[in-house]
Design a protein that fits this description.
- By secondary structure, the protein is of the alpha+beta class.
- It is built from 14 helices and 18 strands.
- The strands form 4 sheets. It has a 7-stranded mixed β-sheet.
- A hairpin with a 5-residue loop joins strand 13 and strand 14.
- Helix 6 crosses helix 7 and helix 9 packs parallel to helix 10.
- The longest helix has 19 residues.
- The radius of gyration is 27 Å and the shape is elongated.
């Protein structure tokens, strides 16, 4: 607030150079030719670097996820023969001024051969879909299964099963401060110093050393003030290693500050799941089992934790409820988009969305108060430490007391009474869930509209008992 904080862009050094990147306008294309002659002649330009120039001197961007049968394609800071998402970096221009660097970058001519792109994970898995990576038989990046309890028995014993398809849409973090890197190399001592708007300076130090072939004891990473991150800077990016490489190669400090357009295109995205969920329960509202298929759009490559994040959705899919049986299948899919990774809770908000929507749907089908359904399915205070069906252990809690206090604080009974008056006055609209209720024998379709409002498509069916 006082203007005394120091961010990456505040770092200034004598002789500092600036970097601008050339990025792909295509989601999928072959690179036939790169003509950088005009850019190399532009005023103030010190160097132009392409993917071919860094082969063997700048290693791959690290992927730390470890899942069975995980497919990890090569991923370098600059593309060489093909681009796989809009915004993928192809060339870097180094100049004595950031505006000259950007002007020169626009002079680079690239001959592209556009190819069919796939941006929907379901279509990406379809037979004959364009392959994001030709070395793999299809676009499936990984498959992970988690099971706990007797899921078959849970669905057999259920009075009702609800199914809903949920979309956890792709999001862009958009921190107030975009990413930024400054690197300085001391030729005499062989020490590399990097300033980065990172959340993980220690891990970044290790990985920059690995990517550039430098002992991490000769690498120092400084994380100044960070103007927002939300997980998007909990990563190792190609630009960080490339800027460090340029500083070592040119013997001068080098800076790169991401533009907002680059931030939208080339900083990790979040979420992007299609979730098909089934919940089995009794007529009294007690939940017996949950079954889910998570289709996660991972983008074109793996960043640090790309493939691991959706596993957290599976682990946390029970939320704060006592569900005896759970079965989760997670399929990661390559598409022609920027990678997804950790963002604002990293897989766990997706799980919360899933379970809370399903609990509301149970309440709607049974015409019960949604708070009452939740209270019905909370583990009691004396059941802690509480082991979930997905293998986690919650150490302590008193969920019923917490919810009841929240209801009292908002005047829940008064709000429900007001809502009931609104139904009778025709101020709220319902949808066809009442017809499902009639089919299930739980009440006439002319009954009062459900206590919970608007819903997406949902199906309800009676299980044999």
């Amino acid at each position: 607030i006082q203007g005394l904080a120091h961010y990456v862009d505040d770092v200034q050094m004598p002789g500092m150079l600036d970097v601008a990147f050339v990025r792909s306008p295509y989601a999928n294309a072959r690179i036939r030719k790169i003509d950088a002659a005009a850019a190399q002649r532009a005023p103030g330009v010190v160097a132009v670097v392409t993917g071919a120039d860094i082969q063997g001197v700048c290693g791959q961007i690290p992927a730390a996820s470890a899942l069975p049968e995980l497919r990890v394609p090569p991923h370098f800071p600059l593309a060489t023969d093909r681009v796989r998402f809009v915004g993928e970096a192809i060339a870097a221009v180094v100049a004595d001024d950031r505006y000259r660097a950007r002007d020169a970058a626009e002079l680079i001519e690239i001959d592209y051969e556009p190819l069919p792109a796939v941006t929907n994970p379901e279509k990406a898995l379809a037979k004959g879909a364009p392959k994001v990576h030709e070395q793999f038989p299809d676009n499936q990046a990984c498959r992970w299964v988690l099971q706990g309890g007797d899921i078959k028995k849970a669905f057999q014993q259920a009075d009702l099963v609800v199914h809903q398809r949920l979309i956890n849409q792709r999001l862009i973090p958009v921190a107030m401060e975009p990413r930024g890197v400054v690197a300085k190399y001391d030729t005499g001592s062989g020490e590399l110093t990097v300033w980065s708007s990172t959340q993980i300076p220690h891990l970044l130090r290790t990985q920059i050393g690995v990517m550039l072939g430098i002992s991490e004891t000769h690498v120092r990473v400084i994380a100044p003030e960070v103007g927002g991150a939300f997980g998007s800077k909990l990563n190792v990016y190609g630009e960080e290693a490339l800027v460090a490489h340029l500083a070592r190669k040119l013997g001068r400090p080098v800076k790169w500050i991401e533009t907002r357009r680059e931030n939208f295109l080339a900083t990790i995205h979040g979420r992007d799941q299609i979730d098909d969920v089934e919940l089995a329960f009794k007529k009294d509202g007690r939940v017996l089992g949950l079954r889910a298929r998570i289709l996660a759009d991972l983008g074109a490559y793996h960043q640090l934790l790309t493939a691991a994040i959706p596993t957290l959705t599976g682990l946390m899919i029970e939320g704060c409820y006592k569900i005896p049986a759970v079965s989760v299948e997670y399929i990661g899919v390559f598409t022609n988009k920027m990678c997804t990774d950790a963002y604002r809770g990293a897989g766990r908000p997706e799980a919360t969305y899933i379970i809370e929507r399903m609990m509301d749907l149970v309440a709607q089908v049974l015409r019960k108060d949604p708070a009452a359904v939740r209270l019905k399915n909370f583990p009691g205070p004396k059941e802690f430490p509480f082991a979930t069906a997905t293998g986690l252990v919650y150490d302590s809690a008193n969920y019923p007391a917490g919810l009841k206090k929240a209801l009292d604080l908002v005047g829940y009974k008064k709000l429900r009474a007001e809502q009931e008056r609104g139904w009778k006055q025709g101020r709220y609209l319902g949808i066809g869930i009442s017809s499902y209720v009639e089919i299930c024998g739980l009440g006439p379709s002319s009954a009062a509209p459900p206590a919970v409002g608007w819903w997406e498509s949902a199906t309800v069916r009676i299980q044999p008992t």
